[in-house]
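Morning!

As promised:
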Amino acid sequence: MTIDVAILGATGMVGQRFVQLLANHPTFRVAELCASERSVGKRYEDAAPWRLSGDNPMPDAVVGPCDPGAVRSPVVFSALDSATALIVEPAFRDAGRAVLTNASPFRMAAGVPLLIPEVNPEHAEWVRGKAGFIVANPNCTHQAMTIALAPLHRRWGVEAVCVASYQAVSGAGYPGESAWDMLGNVHPHAGDEEEKVASEPQKILDAPDLRISARCVRVPVADGHLVAVQAKLRVDPGPDAIREALASFVGPYALHSSPRPLIHLLSQRDRPTPKLDADRGGGMAVSIARVERCEVFTVKFFALAHNAIRGAAGGALANAELLVAKGILALGVA
Ligand code: NAP
């Protein structure tokens, strides 16, 4: 018993990750690949040469349009750019489809769950019983941080956070940043990444008073966003108790795409690194190290997650698995 899905934006960086992660998935079957007019009618491999490791699992699929009238799957995973998502995703929602999106336009909209399935699965209830709906996953940069803050906020309360990111180039999509800008260089993020990092965790953690100051920087790394976090807690339990809370944190649902352990607490002082740690847990785990007393706030640590898997396609897939586990999406729908 599987559920047919369509991938909107299947030719992009995140779209290819969806295709990769959904190959042989126990619950979802990729029935349709969709992209822009530039790609419609072409073989998938011809529309977008495969850029990930391993083989393209569906090279001969024919790309279709991102049009709810032409797509029959009840569930759509969206890897569309923001401007396109703003128009296309509501059209699919209004046509009665479940839309699981990576794009930002509806993340902060009332009634749209901004979901990390291990952190706030109860927010999925907002779409129970709706014919069509949008469920968003958060910005990729703060996912490692927000997952780490979740058990700390529950036990002791988090008041304020300062965070600096070291972000991979795949986070900008394909072709993304130019080689001239990135080779031998780092540069402050020119877009609205800092605003997203500073505002989305409050919705996820039900923490409206949490203050976050973010600085985001692109670095010449392929995959994996590293963040340096300083957090102020309401009480200071000490680094040992914080390490224990992080290492034991898992979500309440056993999901195919949610690894256990969820957080890998590393003892080496020079970790985590994108090269060695981004692929932990199939790219869905969070790697954390250097959990130490902060001289200004309460605690500081480094955290890393794979931006295109945990931070994008894998996160949306885990959200869909949560909807199935909760009975919000029904198996056997084709
Ligand atoms: P990307 O590589 O630029 O891919 C964009 C996709 O959108 C392509 O498949 C493209 O199809 C399609 N598209 C563009 N204009 C379209 C139109 N007018 N109609 C239909 N389809 C259109 O971007 P990405 O990095 O995969 O990111 C996709 C989304 O995920 C973005 O909203 C991004 O912010 C978000 N996100 C990305 C990451 C990451 O790590 N990359 C992480 C989290 C969230 P064509 O090939 O036919 O042009």
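The pocket of NAP is lined by residues 9-15, 35-36, 38-39, 48, 66, 79-82, 84-85, 102-104, 140, 170-171, 173-174, 307-308, 311-312 (CB under 6 Å).

Hope this helps with the figure draft.
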